[in-house]
Amino acid sequence: MSAPLVVAVGALAILAVIVLIARFRLEPIMVLFGVAVLVAVATGRMPSAGVASFEAGAGHALGHIAFVIAFGTMLGRIVSETGAAERIARTLVARFGPRNIHWAMMTVGLAVGLPVFFDVGFVLLAPLAFVAARAAGQPILLAALPLAASLSAAHALMPPHPAIMLAIQAYGAGVPRMVLLGAMAMVPAAIVAGPLFAALVVPRLRVTGVSTLEAQFLERATDRLPPFGLSLLAVLMPVLLILGGMLAARLLPGAGGRWLADFAGSTDIALVLSTLFACVALGTARGMGGRDLARHLHDCLAPIAFVVLLVGAGGGFGRALIDSGISGVLTALALRMHMPVLLLAWGLAAIIRLATGSATVAMSTAAGILAPLAHQAGLAAPEALVLATGAGSVAFGPVTDPVFWQVKEYLGLSVGQTLLTWSCIETLISLMALAAAMICNI
What share of the chain is helix, strand, coil (3-state, %, to 5)? Predict the structure, then answer.
């Protein structure tokens, strides 16, 4: 099949998903599965190959995120049930003021987003955003969108996230200089795509109803709240454990250091240990017995079942596009275009992001492809190339990204509203970071 036809199939597949779900209200999981199989058939593959691609992509996505969502939701439920989320929310509202809750959540997101992946940070902090918005008397989206924007900006632009570290290595950039330039790009991007964008778009959105995940964190008693310091420690413990693992890897040589780094630095282990800590420190202090805690941990899993399946379906759809050769054709077309190297880095990462849905895959793949060309041409500073590639890796916030569906379900949005919020946020971050890369290259 010719390259234009392959690109057309990919574009039509993405458009079909949006129209069938947003306009005709069809079941999202079935739509993603059906279109994935049709993509395989349209590109000359057997239907069974499309099914295999979908299952492989779903398995890969769920292998990474399913238990992160589960353990993170358990931690969020205990933090919410014990009043710790309420205590943190009241403190944030008191410090920032009810009218500035969007700035408070952006600040929290930037701090937590530095050592953890977006999906971990979002699962961990979404309950806090729900409760903080209620305490401030503001719409949920005014707190949740700046949180999501700041987490995404930190993930795309700041070490030590794995993808950007791979880009730093590929381009030969300096880590200290990259930390400085990344922070200079991250903060303005988070401000524009977070509080400023939320203040503009939230009053114009009409979100009806409450998502099941949001509901389970809002209907809680507010008496006998735990201390602020203990509450904050419970929420931040996964971050502290992951940071401790990173420090152990650098400061403790030998097998013992590697074991400790691997143990503490594991996202799943960090979330489980933090949940156990919250159960003991917060649950026991509130007088909850083991049976009550077990019931809360069990009951909170039911609302996330659809979220997990939908995230897996998004991953399966993205894998179907990859296996059908669409991402490879788009990458080849981008390389044949005559454009400045920074724009090429941004465009290549953006195309891979659109085709595969993964920011990590987009950044690492684009950096690997362009590194020899960038070294040979010498037309851009290595740090500027890292920023441009990271900027492209978060462009569009497409439906091929499992996070698109995660944000949609967590915030109770329609597909159209998710495109107007999350996809616009990701594109704003991308354009702001690209501008920062160009300024750094002057």
Answer: 80, 0, 20
Q: Measure Cα distances from 8 to 12, 50, 397 in Å.
A: 6, 18, 20
State pTM to two decimals: 0.82
User: Which pLDDT belongs to residue 39?
Assistant: 94
Q: What is the DSSP string of 59-79?
A: HHHHHHHHHHHHHHHHHHHHH
Q: Find out whether 392 and 434 touch, Cβ atoms under 8 Å.
A: yes
Count of alpha carbons within 13 angstroms of residue 425, beta-carbon side = 34
Residue 138 CA to residue 351 CA, distance in Å, equals 37
pLDDT value, residue 217: 66
| Domain ranges, ordered by start, for the chain | 64-161+210-304
- The answer to whether residue 263 scores a pLDDT higher than 80 is yes
Token code pair at residue 293: 């805690």
Cα–Cα distance for residue pair 147/346, rounded to 1 Å: 24
| Token duo for residue 32 | 């993603």
Residues 6 or more apart in contact with residue 308 via CB below 8 angstroms: 62, 65, 66, 69, 70
Tracing tokens 């019931």 back to the chain, one arrives at 295
Q: What backbone phi and psi angles, to 5 degrees, belong to 2?
A: -70, 160
**Could you tell me if 249 and 265 are in contact, meaning their C-beta atoms sit under 8 angstroms apart?**
yes
Contact 107, 68 (CB under 8 A): no
Output the average pLDDT for the chain: 87
At residue 429, the pLDDT reads 97
For 162-201, write each residue's pLDDT tens digit: 778 878 888 888 888 898 899 999 999 999 999 999 999 9
The helix-helix angle for 3-22 and 305-323 (nearest 10°) equals 160
Q: What letter would DSSP give residue 193? A: I
Q: Which tokens is 283 given?
A: 């649950």
Q: How far apart are CA 233 and CA 242, in angstroms?
A: 14
CA distance 130 to 78: 15
Q: Are 347 and 330 in contact (CB under 8 A)?
A: no
- Cα separation, 299 vs 302, whole angstroms: 6
Spatial contact of 405 and 422, defined as CB atoms under 8 Å apart: no
Q: Position 261: which residue type?
A: A
Confidence of residue 68 (pLDDT cuts 50, 70, 90): confident
Output 15-20 pairs: Cβ under 8 A, ≥24 positions apart.
17/317, 17/399, 18/399, 18/415, 18/419
DSSP three-state, residue 102:
helix
| Structure-token pair, residue 407 | 């944000």
